[in-house]
């Protein structure tokens, strides 16, 4: 299962967010072997960027570990709206 997490962050908070998420993702990779990446939209809107955390091939219980990592890294303090999590599974190939 793949997890996609998106939210908006004020431009001035971007360096802090990037450092905190990168550290959290490195720890999650070490602990759970999940492939992670951090992306953002190229343009800001109203002084905010949309950011996307990506977690590929995560286990069913990874969501709890991710939430614990977010809490410990204090990422919510930098988010300027809600944090949205979407779960995706691979689709069946066409016959």
Provide a descriptive summary of the structure in words.
The structure is a single chain. The chain has a single domain, classed as Ribosomal protein S10 (Alpha-Beta Plaits, 2-Layer Sandwich), CATH 3.30.70.600. A 4-stranded antiparallel β-sheet has the order 2-3-1-4, covered by helices on one side. It is an alpha+beta fold and 95 residues long. A hairpin with a 7-residue loop joins strand 2 and strand 3. Helix 1 packs antiparallel against helix 2.
Shape, principal axes of CA atoms:
globular
If you consult CATH, what is the topology? Alpha-Beta Plaits
Q: What structural class is derived from the secondary structure elements?
A: alpha+beta
CATH architecture annotation name: 2-Layer Sandwich
| Low-confidence blocks of residues | none
Write a short abstract of this structure.
This protein is of the alpha+beta class and 95 residues long.
